[in-house]
Specification:
Blueprint lengths: L6 H10 L37 H11 L22 H11 L22 H9 L19 H12 L22 H11 L19 H12 L3 H13 L4 E4 L9 E2 L9 E4 L8 E3 L7 E4 L5 E4 L11 E8 L11 E7 L8 E6 L6 E5 L7 E4 L10 E9 L6 E9 L18 E9 L11 E4 L5 E2 L4 E2 L4 E12 L2 E9 L9 E3 L22 E7 L5 E7 L7 E3 L3 E3 L5 E4 L11 E10 L8 E6 L8 E7 L8 E6 L3 E5 L9 E8 L4 E6 L2 E2 L3 E2 L14 E5 L12 E9 L5 H11 L19
Antiparallel strand pairs: 1-36, 2-3, 3-25, 4-24, 5-18, 5-23, 6-15, 6-22, 7-12, 7-18, 8-9, 8-15, 9-10, 10-11, 12-13, 13-14, 16-17, 18-19, 20-21, 21-22, 24-36, 25-35, 26-31, 26-36, 27-28, 27-35, 28-29, 29-30, 31-32, 32-33, 32-34
Helix pairs in contact: 2-7, 3-4, 5-6, 5-7, 8-9
């Protein structure tokens, strides 16, 4: 059982919170009040729950954070506290409280929870970590009634982390809870933690219905002090006062305009790079976490410790989108992975043609020097694009020949269907090709590389390094006779987030060049992050110090910038400072190295130069700390710097100009840097006509401002927001589960 983020919290609740599952004959103790960041608590909108009551606090908390929802009626929204909690509602509530995580392992597929079911994400997570059990008939029964015993058991599995509070009594001391099973342990845990009680006759009554009141009281008690959620909610309230608010979570990812959620009708326009395209839309095509690689020579994923590769027969499966994002070196291939290169140690590669056929190609080297291609004649029916493909390859058919079989599977199939054997109806045989040739694959010592990389596989025309796109899962199984061995099993949903990034060294085989404004073309270091796949193989993501689009792990809707791509809004006088000042906030995640791996946003007429009125922010390796926030009137400029952000972590850069206090302050992740004095008014007044709010690369094509980062959200305020508000905005923008369409109650008090 995995450790839960609620483990410590529940233990702390013992002394502070005593809550009981409530029915008419139960022994009831008051629920301790939570300590929300946002005060006062929201007014209850439930017509059947009294304001100020202990139950009202729990309902307000649950509704506010979407743990449980109100139910509409002719006489207003009701909580319906006396009705039964369904199994679907319960598992969804636990999932929300855990932060809406993806599956940790292979989820159980239930026949009554389809791919499009509202309960599917919660059930996938809960079944993968053992919160819910596999049913004998293959069904989950989301509409069926949850019991008190089931409620406590699922909460125990989700929140306890396997820990039992001190002083726990077997079975909670209830006369009807006996034995040593998980239900007894769950009741012991919940009772000792002070989040559940029983009845006056000393019974617990595990088999009786868990009402909605019972459920919300227990979950509220288990949550203790949900400060992170309160902050996320509070951030949405602060953003409600912005004069411009753009959020990728509030956009469907189509078209070229990110809507302005402030209501001021000033959308962000998506601008492609002047060369090689972009920005890349991540996270809208699937709710599952996935790995994106653009196919650049200098952005790739590799294994530092090579797993044992096949030298004969193998099976290969891929679930993803192989639509080419980038064509390099004139190649007609879209490489999925390769091992070895053109250095007398070549081995194996798999690619898919990008010419519209979707034809699979297995490249093998029998001797390390020469390469031979076994190519299908028919591509999968969905060709390039989202779906699943499978390849079965035999280096030796027993007749001095190689054989390639290509399979396909619909992207609408359950993720677990990818594990089915190729002779299962879930897979469809597309093509079988048998060709004469050597019956061996060189056992290379070289690493495995996904996307392109430092070694290039030769074709009949030219070497190439090719891109492919989004990878949800990729599996390679080698065979010795009939004995299978998993070489690697890379599952994007299991990549831990956030990744930890470190500066790497120059690559021994092919030092990457820095696309620097100075033109020095010096080899540059990489930012490297590693993770372990399902099979135990260690992978490294290498993002080099160049202007290319970087590799990224998508866990939320975002725009990935590089090569001059940007978004821009305006011009609009609403983006000028108000009489009290100005605040600019940008939510982002950076996984780039080097002086050109920067975040840049500005409100100036298409130039980095500070000889015009306006404001801008910059993050780059030129700076020893974090992003700067700069304001000026065209002559005098003020520069405030914030703490350095952690690479790979979703965070914010926020610049605050407080006219009354006479200061400019920059924040990173809600943490302020040292304020810079701004005596009087810097006097830049209204912006000049034609000025834009630009995020990403600078609009000036002569400037090498390659913004290699993921953008999530941005906001502009015509006032200085407070430190508490800055922390709330940061918490909201960095939250992958934020829901901008949700109405939030007001007012919220901050420390002003």
């Amino acid at each position: 059982m995995k450790s839960s983020r609620f483990s410590v919290r529940v233990a702390a609740v013992v002394a502070a919170v005593v809550a009981c599952l409530l029915v008419s004959s139960a022994v009831v103790a008051p629920v301790g009040a939570a300590s929300p960041v946002c005060e006062p608590p929201p007014p209850s909108l439930a017509t059947d729950v009294g304001n100020g009551s202990a139950l009202g606090e729990a309902v307000d908390w649950a509704v506010c954070h979407r743990v449980m929802a109100l139910q509409p009626s002719l006489f207003g929204s009701r909580f319906n506290q006396g009705t039964a909690t369904s199994r679907g509602v319960l598992v969804n509530a636990l999932w929300v409280m855990e932060g809406r995580p993806g599956p940790v392992g292979a989820p159980v597929v239930f026949s009554d929870v389809g791919v499009r079911s509202a309960w599917r994400p919660a059930v996938d997570w809960a079944s993968s970590v053992g919160v819910v059990d596999r049913s004998a008939d293959g069904k989950f029964y989301p509409s069926s009634t949850a019991t008190r015993g089931g409620l406590v058991l699922w909460a125990f599995r989700a929140f306890s982390g396997g820990d039992m509070p001190a002083g726990a009594v077997p079975g909670g001391g209830f006369s009807d809870v006996t034995g040593s099973g998980q239900t007894a342990a769950a009741v012991s845990w919940a009772t000792a933690a002070g989040i559940v009680g029983g009845f006056s006759d000393g019974t617990f009554r595990s088999g009786t219905t868990a009402t909605r009141e019972v459920t919300v009281r227990m979950l509220y008690a288990a949550a203790g002090t949900p400060a992170a959620w309160e902050q996320t909610w509070a951030g949405a309230v602060v953003l409600g006062s912005a004069v411009g608010w753009w959020d990728t979570a509030g956009w469907d990812g189509t078209g070229d305009q990110v809507p302005d959620l402030s209501g001021n009708q000033n959308p962000m326009r998506v601008r492609a790079a002047p060369h090689l395209g972009g920005p890349v839309r991540l996270g809208w095509d699937t709710p599952d976490r996935y790995l994106y690689t653009p196919g650049w020579d200098d952005m790739f994923v590799t294994t530092p410790d090579r797993p044992g590769m096949p030298t004969g027969a193998f099976e290969f499966r891929i679930d993803g989108d192989l639509t080419r994002e980038l064509t390099t070196n004139g190649s007609g291939e879209n490489f999925v992975f390769h091992q070895g290169g053109a250095d007398a140690d070549g081995s194996l590669a798999v690619s898919f043609a990008d010419n519209g056929t979707g034809a699979a190609t297995v490249w093998t080297s029998p001797d390390g020097n020469t390469w031979q291609a076994t190519r299908s004649t028919t591509g999968p029916s969905f060709k390039m694009g989202l779906g699943r493909r499978g390849v079965r390859f035999a280096a030796d058919t027993g007749a001095g020949a190689r054989q390639l079989r290509v399979y396909e599977q619909s992207s609408a199939r359950a993720p677990s269907d990818m594990n089915r054997p190729f002779d299962d109806p879930a897979w469809r045989l597309v093509d079988t090709v048998t060709v004469a040739g050597p019956a061996a694959i060189n056992n290379s010592s070289r690493p495995i590389v996904i996307s392109s990389g430092t070694d290039r596989i030769p074709t009949t025309s030219s070497p190439f390094a090719a891109g492919w796109g989004r990878l949800r899962r990729m599996n390679l199984t080698a065979y010795t006779g009939t004995t299978p061995t998993t070489v690697f099993d890379l599952d994007g949903a299991r990549i831990p987030m956030p990744l930890t990034w470190a500066r790497g060294g120059d690559h021994a085989d092919s030092p990457q060049l820095c696309w620097c404004a100075q033109g020095d073309q010096a080899p540059g270091p990489a930012k490297v992050a590693s993770f372990t796949d399902r099979s135990g193989a260690v992978w490294e993501i290498q993002n080099w110090q160049t202007g290319s689009v970087p590799s990224a792990v998508a866990d939320r809707p975002a725009l990935l910038f590089g090569n001059g791509a940007r978004v821009e809004a305006g011009p609009s006088p609403l983006l000028d400072p108000g009489t009290a000042g100005l605040t600019v906030a940008v939510g982002f995640r950076s996984t780039r190295a080097g002086i050109e791996g920067m975040l840049f946003h500005s409100y100036r007429p298409g130039t980095l130069m500070h000889d015009t009125p306006g404001w801008d922010s910059l993050q780059t390796a030129y700076l020893p700390g974090g992003p700067t926030f700069n304001i000026g009137d065209g002559t005098a400029n003020l520069y405030a710097q914030s703490p350095a952000p952690a690479d790979g972590a979703a965070t914010t850069t926020i610049g605050v100009y407080d006219r009354g206090a006479g200061t400019v302050t920059a924040y990173t992740g809600g943490r302020p840097g040292t304020p810079v004095s701004a005596p009087g008014d810097v006097g830049f007044g209204a912006a000049a006509a034609g000025q834009l709010f630009s995020i990403g690369a600078d609009p000036d094509p002569d400037l090498h401002s390659y913004g290699g980062f993921e953008w999530f959200a941005a906001a502009v305020f015509d006032r200085p927001i407070t430190p508490a508000e800055s922390a709330a905005v940061d918490g909201y923008m960095a939250d992958p589960a934020r829901a901008v369409q949700v109405e939030v109650p007001a007012p919220i008090r901050f420390d002003r």
